Amino acid sequence: MKYLNTKFKKALIIVTGSIILTVVAVIVFISPIAKYLVEKHVGKYLGRQITMSWIYVNPFTGYVHISNLKVYESATLPSTTDGDSIFFSANGVSANFGLYKLIFSKTIEIEEITLDHPKGKIIQNSKRLNFSDLITLWTPKQPRTKPAKFHFNILAIKIIDGEFYYLEKLIPVNYFIKNVNIESQGKRWTSDTLGAKFSLTQGRGTGDIKGDFTINFKTNEYRFAIIVHKFDLNIIEQYLKELMNYGSFSANIDADVKARGGFDDEENATASGMLAVNDFHFGKTPDDDYASFDKLVVAMTEVSPKNHKYLFDSVSLTHPYIKYERYDYLDNVQMIFGKSGANLSEAYDDPAKFNLVIEIARYIKVLVKNFFQSYYKVNRLAIYRGDIKFNDYAIREKFSVQLDPLFIIADSVDKNHERVKVSVKSGIKPYGNTNLSLSINPKNSGDFDLQYYFQKIPASVFNPYLITYTSYPLDRGTIEIKGRWNVSDGSINSVNHLVIIDPSRTTRIKNNDDSWLPLPLIMSLVRERGNVIDYQIPISGNLKDPKFHLHDVLMDFLENLFVKPATAPYRMEVKEMETEIEKSLTLKWEMRQTELQPEQKKFIGKMVDFLKKNPEASIAVYPVQYSEKEKEYIRFFEAKKKYFLIINNISGHIISEHDSLMIDKMSVKDSLFVQYLNKHHDNALVFTIQEKCNNFVGPDFINSRFNQLNKKRENVFLSQFRIKSVENRVKIHAGENDIPYNGFSFYKIAYKGDLPKALLKAYRRMNELNKEAPREKYEKEREKNKKAQKELK
User: Fold this and answer.
1) Which of 10, 168, 432, 566 could cross-link 457 (Cys pair, CB 3.0–4.6 Å)?
2) CB contact set of 500 (below 8 Å; sequence gap of 6+)
3) CB of 641 within 8 A of CB of 654?
4) What span, in angstroms and rounded, lies between the C-alpha atoms of 9 and 502?
5) Residue 187's pLDDT band (boundaries 50, 70, 90)?
6) SS3 annotation, 2-39
7) C-beta of residue 766 within 8 angstroms of C-beta of residue 578
8) 168: buried, middle or exposed (CB in 10 Å: 19+, 13-18, 0-12)?
9) Are 92 and 53 within 8 A, CB to CB?
């Protein structure tokens, strides 16, 4: 019995050992065999080289692990490679196969598959992708007519710290994401849905995304929830490069959005949540924006194009900035996108070429195409601290105006409401403000009531246009415009009121590129006896064909033509008093002026006599320098002068008075001069004559000339005080750079002690004149404007 037990034990040990050895041998030998088969035959089947460090296969448990897997690009698609031939790689790929179901139920089941640090690359060249061959390989040549012999389940999918690249070779685009982590419960053959959780970070830049999604492959419907944090939108700039001649873009996005919809119908989408775009910048260079904003926040209650619902809790835009500029040729927008947006039109009309920006624009167009026919509601719509700037370089001088800060507030924009109220308030730079109140029928844009007001705007702001088209600038005058529009179903009932208080023109500027209109004659005909231009301009008709009623303009014109001459003595006295006051308190400098005019010498002489007669009195002078405009004039003159010397072969920098006059009269838009400037600068992004002249002469030289100009003015102003030995009672303070209300640099003069008798007399008489009939009507407006000017100074 003992012998039999011993023999049985030996047999058991031998059988067990044999089984173990067999299992070990199978495992040991099947792994290199599997490695050989995969690298040789699977790679040949895919048309790609496959390499790996090692593969471990356990046929008894169904566990497979591949180390350092590399799948190379197809040799048949060389145009889609980028020099790096690896298409896909992973530090490790692991899978557990359900052998039991494979044997007994003809089901291939992967219980779990894990990809550790996978790296994938998608390369596109025109319509070709670097995996087009795999799509062709796995696409059935004929539709399946018989049930599949095997079923496929994958119960869990895990991707750990993936890294995926996208390269578009034509545009080009080079983009990637990293730290990609995906976990999914997989998909059974009996189920139509696939769901997963995911997270990833930006490859080049900042930000991360996390969320989950579900896709139904039978109905082609989807559902997702996504949270985005400061995700850099640098991929947008890469696609914009194809659409722009030059320019830069940057922004990032935050989001917390839930959505559902269908792939078969673009309008079949319903979304809710928050979307915010931050630090948006678009412009000429990273330091020169054409458009920007701090934050755009859209809070969605329910947006469903298919169900015709657009419900928003709020839409807010913080600190938007827009700069629009006109040049001699085109404007800043057309310079970027081509004439009339030619670059955009070309890309939009080419469906064969993919551009993410165009596709986003197309999709937004689909989403909002039925907006006004749908039910829409925005609980609060707001724009805070807006800044809209307009620069016009197409005329002789630069014209610039700015709405800043701009606030637009609309509460409860609801299509079911009878009216929607919108309030617009803004400052106007350099001076002025505006206020607008709009009440509109949300069901009919041709049904609205509008009230507007523009006030405290100096007439001198428009000098660039006046000089270009009339040759006469203004050095005095305040503009106010207000009006009311009542529009019902497109029919207009509108009254508009224009008032210009105390407009005054200065001497004519003679220049070859200036048109000439008899502005003194025109002003004498349009200006009323009280030195005011005051017109009511009603408008009727409809929005497509408005009719302007100029009865008030024509009657004032006739009155000024026949009645005004009789009041000439009154108007001359008013002008004399205004001049006495103005010249006693300020000394105006024409552009580039360094010599005193006869009248200015006379008034300085009066100040000298006043100081001699009043030993206790003194004068403080505060120079206000319109440096931007002064430098523009210096820039133009010095560039024309340099050009004049070169083309006439004149050496040195000293020119005759005759030559100086010729240079002054030369147009800065002269075609030969502009051609010469264009040949002598190599910056393709310089569009304005101001910049070209600045580069031609040099900014340091311009600054030097500006400092010399101010020093000469100071010396010539003090010269008469020195002669009478009262210079020590005149103090000239440091200059202040500003945009003066009158449009010219000037010396502001303050008297310490008693005021000159002539000035006091002029003040008293001016107050009396303001209370007389022709000026009494506008006395409050004059006081208001004086107060505003003092506050601004």
Assistant:
1) 432
2) 459, 477, 478, 479, 480, 532, 533, 534
3) no
4) 125
5) confident
6) HHHHHHHHHHHHHHHHHHHHHHHHHHHHHHHHHHHHHH
7) yes
8) buried
9) no
Residue burial 748-770, b: 16+ Cβ < 10 Å; e: rest = bbebeeeebeebeebeebbeebb
Looking at the predicted structure, is the pLDDT value of residue 775 above 50? no
Higher-pLDDT residue of 24 and 416 is: 416
Q: What is the pLDDT of residue 381?
A: 94
Nearest to 466 by CA among 407, 520, 526, 533: 520
pLDDT in the model for residue 535: 85
Q: Which residue has the tokens 């890469």?
A: 238
| 580-587 contact pairs (CB < 8 A, 24+) | 580/758, 580/759, 580/762, 581/759, 581/762, 581/763, 581/766, 584/749, 584/756, 584/758, 584/759, 584/762, 585/748, 585/749, 585/759, 586/746, 586/747, 586/748, 586/749, 587/717, 587/746, 587/747, 587/749
Residue 634: which of 556, 690, 577, 714 has the closest Cα? Answer: 690
Give residue-wise pLDDT tens across range 39-95: 888 878 888 889 999 998 887 788 899 999 999 988 776 655 665 689 999 999 999
Could you identify the residue written with the tokens 């000469």?
712
pLDDT at 634 over 80: yes
Give pLDDT tens digits for 733-753. Answer: 998 998 988 899 988 888 886
Q: What is the pLDDT of residue 161?
A: 96
What is the sign of the dihedral through the CA atoms of 751, 757, 758 and 761?
positive
CB atoms within 10 A of CB 588: 19
Count CA atoms closer than 13 A to 504's CA, side-chain side. Answer: 15
Backbone angles phi, psi at 247, to 5 degrees: 125, 170
Cβ-Cβ contacts under 8 Å for 81 (sequence gap 6 or more): 73, 123, 130
Give the Cα separation of 533 and 500 in Å (integer).
5
Enumerate the H helices of 517-562 as residue ranges: 519-526, 551-562
Q: Find the range with the poorest average confidence among 304-318, 430-444, 474-488, 522-536.
A: 522-536
**Contact at 8 Å (CB) between 65 and 100?**
no
CA distances from 719 to 590, 593, 608, 708 (A): 19, 16, 11, 16
Q: 274 by DSSP, 3-state: which?
A: strand
Report residue 687 as tokens. Answer: 């569009």
pLDDT of residue 768: 44
Range 338-346 contact pairs with CB under 8 angstroms and sequence separation of 24 or more: 338/245, 343/243, 343/244, 343/245, 344/243
* Percent over 70 (pLDDT), the chain: 82
Q: Which residues contact 412 (CB under 8 A, 6 or more apart)?
A: 377, 378, 379, 380, 420
Burial class (CB in 10 A: 0-12, 13-18, 19+), 746: buried
CA distances from 27 to 20, 22, 65 (A): 10, 8, 12
DSSP annotation of 733 reads P
Q: Is the dihedral of CA 473, 477, 478, 479 positive or negative?
A: negative
Supply the pTM of this predicted model.
Answer: 0.85
CA angle 735, 740, 745 (to 5 degrees): 55
For residues 167 and 173, what is the distance between their CA atoms, to the nearest angstrom? Answer: 5
Contacts by 277-282, CB closer than 8 A, 24 or more apart: 277/233, 277/251, 277/252, 277/253, 278/230, 278/251, 278/252, 278/253, 278/254, 279/250, 279/251, 279/252, 280/250, 280/251, 281/248, 281/249, 281/250, 281/251, 282/247, 282/248, 282/249
What is the average pLDDT across 585-590? 83
Count CB-CB contacts under 10 A for residue 117.
14
Q: Are 279 and 251 in contact (CB under 8 A)?
A: yes
Task: Reduce the secondary structure of 429-471 to three states and give it as a string.
Answer: ECCCEEEEEEEEECCEEEEEEEEEEEEEEEHHHHHHHHHHHHC
* Nearest to 209, CA basis, from 252, 158, 157: 252
User: What is the chain's length?
Assistant: 793
